[in-house]
Amino acid sequence: MRFPETTPVLVVGGGPVGLTLSVLLSGHGVPHLLVEAHPSTSRHPKARGVSARSMEIFRKCGLEEEVRAAGLPASQVFFYRGRDLVDPDFVRTGVASGAAEGPERTPSPGLICSQDALEAVLLRRARQLAPEGALFDTRLISLTPQDGHVRAVLEDRATGERHTVRADWLVGCDGASSTVREASGIAMAGPTGLGHFLSIRFEAPLGEVVADRASASYFLTAPGRGGFLAVDNDRRWIYQYPYNPEHADTAALLADHQALARLVREAAGLPELAVTVQDTMTWRMDARLAETYRRARVLLAGDAAHVVPPTGGHGMNVGIGDADNLAWKLAAATAGTAGEALLDSYEAERRPVARQVIDISLANSRARDGYRIDDELLLTAAYRSTAVLADPNAPNAPERSPLDPDGDHPEAAPGTRLPHLRLGDRAGAASTLDLVGPGFTLFTTTGAEAWRRQAATATAAGLPVTVRTVPLPGLPEATGVPSTGAVLVRPDGHIAWRAPQPDAGDGQLIAALRRVLSAGPAAQDAGHYPSADSAQRLA
């Protein structure tokens, strides 16, 4: 293995969140190193629900079709309830994500893609973009925050050799038992032990059995039975069995594949089913949130920052959103175009989202009358932070939660995601979202020369902005600005600022950018943040 002595960003953890962050950092042109203690990606399906917002992020990375091909067909994204898999009185509810009536909200509907398949897709892409940037079988031994950087000691688990790496920033994406979080002294708060489950990964010829009821999840209504998760709705399955870790027979059960196969047969209602148990894992249902997402030059993302009960289906998606929010901010900070305070906006924007998803999921786990959070809910995320500039003449908005189940967030207000509009025949772009990034993007309807001059002034000062003229009749209405106005969109697709018309001078846009980036006038002498022409394209 080749270990660099220094790196702008060290990512600890090679699960879906760490790998997504690696892909995004490469797209922003940020050299980095990712290390993962395990020798390979997950063999266990674990998380499976991929939200529409996560799919939009993968679309930006050029991975949407590959992820979709690795997932279940949309026709199978249903939820089954019955006493067993052959219950004649079963109930099947839910429809494929994105099939709901009403305006199209996204170009990239969500889907079910098991974590083992998703990680393989992400790792291939991460290594295409940074061939030596992802080292598995490598663990973090210690980290020491120092003035302006972090000193990390890494161990090659195959050889036992240790290496010291100096990182400008270190991001812990290393899961619920995060070594990074513990070493940084960041506490977690929230209930633990809400349930204990045994996940049995097995093969069995169940495809014909469920042909008339194919679903993503099969919830068994018989008490204490748990449920089945479809990996391919044919031969590959997971059985989730609720168990008591203090029961005297538990240890023996975990080691007895014949007993585990009997559990599967009983739950399926098929006493003669041929079952091959492949492996097992146990997990505990917790609902915890880190007290802070940042300590000096160390940041947390994914399960290292928030542990979400699965009774909502979006724990992994919240982490993928963390990566998307954090990647462009690290890019700006390492390029010198942003002040360090920009990294504080990461917690200000993402921690409330995790808090709300945890609360909804926790309520689901207690009520037992709902299991998933509406897939479109994560599309409504509205940020409030120093990286978002509120409209100066708007009345003070009431405090709202970042995710809005009732649709009360104003469309396209600063902090919300840019609305999706279809672009028709525009080459290489089917949605307004396809025109975003990798740096800042200024959307206009008419392409007024005044806005182009302002973008040129910002670019000359080291803050490149790509101007996108989108002459769609619905754009002014969707973005809430008249045809003379402009909307500044951050690299993560969220609106940073909007203005109804250009000022007389050319400093209006650059002033907004400096405020968003927590950067003073010195930003004009710093390195350039990636523009559409200068950064390595994600797709």
Task: Describe this protein's structure.
The protein has 539 residues and is of the alpha+beta class. Among the domains are: 6-71 and 113-189 and 288-377, FAD/NAD(P)-binding domain (3-Layer(bba) Sandwich); 382-525, 3-Layer(aba) Sandwich (Glutaredoxin), CATH 3.40.30.120. The chain is 26% helix and 22% strand. The longest helix is centred in the middle third of the chain and has 27 residues, at 341-367.
Structural key phrases:
12 helices; globular; alpha+beta; 24 strands; 7-stranded mixed beta sheet; 539 residues; Glutaredoxin; 8-stranded mixed beta sheet; FAD/NAD(P)-binding domain
What is the fold named in CATH at topology level of the domain at 6-71 and 113-189 and 288-377?
A: FAD/NAD(P)-binding domain
State the separation between the terminal residues, measured CA to CA: 28 Å
Proportion in β-strands? 15-25%
| Count of DSSP strands | 24
As a percent range, the share of helical residues equals 25-40%
Mean pLDDT: 89
Name the shape in a single word: globular
- CATH class category of the domain at 6-71 and 113-189 and 288-377: Alpha Beta
Structural topology:
Blueprint: E1 6-12, H1 16-27, E2 32-36, E3 49-50, H2 52-60, H3 64-70, E4 79-82, E5 91-93, E6 111-112, H4 115-129, E7 134-136, E8 138-146, E9 149-156, E10 162-172, H5 179-183, E11 188-189, E12 195-203, E13 217-220, E14 227-230, E15 236-242, H6 250-255, H7 257-268, E16 276-285, E17 288-290, E18 294-295, E19 298-300, E20 306-307, H8 315-335, H9 341-367, E21 440-444, H10 449-460, E22 465-469, H11 475-479, E23 486-489, E24 495-499, H12 508-516
Parallel strand pairs: 1-2, 1-10, 2-7, 4-13, 10-19, 21-22
Antiparallel strand pairs: 3-6, 4-5, 8-9, 9-10, 11-17, 12-15, 12-16, 13-14, 14-15, 17-20, 18-19, 21-23, 23-24
